[in-house]
């Protein structure tokens, strides 16, 4: 089974901010260096706390400052949920149908599926006798 994707520091900062009912604010402070190797300086504000960090791209600088904020923040942190376990405990999430097809192929037999209880057709006959409707007489008032 594939490993669940780990959350980025920016994602974790967003969760921390949401948990504390505040909005994270990233601010580009400066960019320096030649065009082929720029360095970006970014500031992150969470409530009254601020952190600064640098990176070779804005995204890398944001991730670095988010990582710094996660380790240094004094805000209450949300409880991390454990990763979901595989419900059916099949290795690699193989469904029973796929498993049955594989077994049938190994034995050289076709896997034939039929419904357990076929739906019965409705047993009614439409009444197309409209004569009664047209033979009604109206009594004069």
Describe the structure.
It is a single chain. The chain is built from four helices and three strands, in the order H-E-E-E-H-H-H. The protein is α+β, with helices and mostly antiparallel strands and 141 residues long. The chain has a three-stranded antiparallel β-sheet, with helices on one face. Helix 1 packs across helix 2.
Q: Strand-and-helix sequence, N→C?
A: HEEEHHH
Separation of the first and last Cα atoms:
84 Å
Q: Give the biggest beta sheet.
A: 3 strands, antiparallel
Query: What amount of the residues lies in strands?
Result: 15-25%
Radius of gyration, CA atoms, in whole angstroms: 34 Å
Residue share in helices?
25-40%
Low-confidence stretches: none
Structural class: alpha+beta
What is the averaged pLDDT score?
A: 82
Shape verdict: elongated
> How many DSSP-defined strands?
3
Helix run count:
4
- The strand order across the widest sheet is 1-2-3
Topology:
Elements: H1 9-19, E1 25-32, E2 39-46, E3 49-55, H2 58-72, H3 96-107, H4 131-134
Antiparallel strand pairs: 1-2, 2-3
Helix pairs in contact: 1-2
Give me some keywords for this one:
alpha+beta, elongated, 4 helices, 3-stranded antiparallel sheet, 141 residues
Summarize it:
The chain is of the alpha+beta class. Helices cover 30% and strands 16% of the residues.
